[in-house]
């Protein structure tokens, strides 16, 4: 075989080898490219998913922050509410203690008044924190008169002496009459029982202030004429009971809390 033939054979063999190699690497490149594209698509999908996840996480964090702030506000409101409940409990205890103190004070005053004023014409009653000293009119006044009798003044002095020991209590003096009309000789001065009951209440109030030293800011006068009877006006005994002065000891005015 000539040298030319050998070279041709070698070149042919080389071409065949190169073609095979090209085909092999071409297939391998295609496979690699396909794998790369698949991985790129997967990476892009994962990056998109990561972006959505981050967005969702940011939204969740915002919601969580809002919830945490809401819980903080609710906790503060709860603490404020607990504080107010404590204040209300303290106020309730204070009111209850004051109520018990007033009950004891009223009972003590009632006992002292009963001890000092032993007379069937004077009665003492208690209702809903109010102490009432009921003095029949004949003890204090002459019939048809609003001028205090000496013995009436003495009764008021003894009552005032005890009332002054309880300076936080308000005092209302009420005038009451029977249902008999004012006699003609007195009508110029007292046209009706309204004027007579008012004059008697005012006379008692002024005496308590001017002669007994009762603070006038504690005093009030009220007139009820014949319209609040405590007995039957059809009998002399009943009318005598209805002609009266009532000295009402009222509860202290509630404190204005600031």
Strand order of the largest sheet: 1-2-5-3-4
Query: Class of the largest domain, according to the CATH hierarchy?
Result: Alpha Beta
Helix content bin: 55-70%
CATH superfamily of the largest domain, called what? OmpA-like domain
Let me know the number of strands: 5
* DSSP helical segment count: 5
CATH architecture heading of the largest domain = 2-Layer Sandwich
What is the string of helix and strand elements? Answer: HEEHHEHEHE
Mean of residue pLDDT values: 85
Low-pLDDT regions: none
Indicate the radius of gyration in whole angstroms: 53 Å
Secondary structure class reads alpha+beta
CATH topology of the largest domain: 60s Ribosomal Protein L30, Chain: A
Q: What spatial form do the alpha-carbon principal axes imply?
A: rod-shaped
Distance linking N and C termini = 130 Å
- How much of the polypeptide forms β-strand, as a percent range? 5-15%
How many domains, as an integer?
Answer: 2
Q: What about the largest sheet?
A: 5 strands, mixed
Structure description:
With 258 residues, the chain is an alpha+beta fold. It has 2 domains: 1-103; 117-250, 60s Ribosomal Protein L30, Chain: A. It has helices at 3-116, 137-140, 150-163, 193-210, 236-242; strands at residues 122-127, 130-136, 170-176, 219-223, 244-250. A 5-stranded mixed β-sheet has the order 1-2-5-3-4. The N and C termini lie far apart (130 Å).
Could you give a quick summary of the protein structure above?
The chain contains 5 helices and 5 strands.
Provide keyphrases for this structure:
60s Ribosomal Protein L30, Chain: A, 12% strand, 2 domains, rod-shaped, 258 residues, alpha+beta
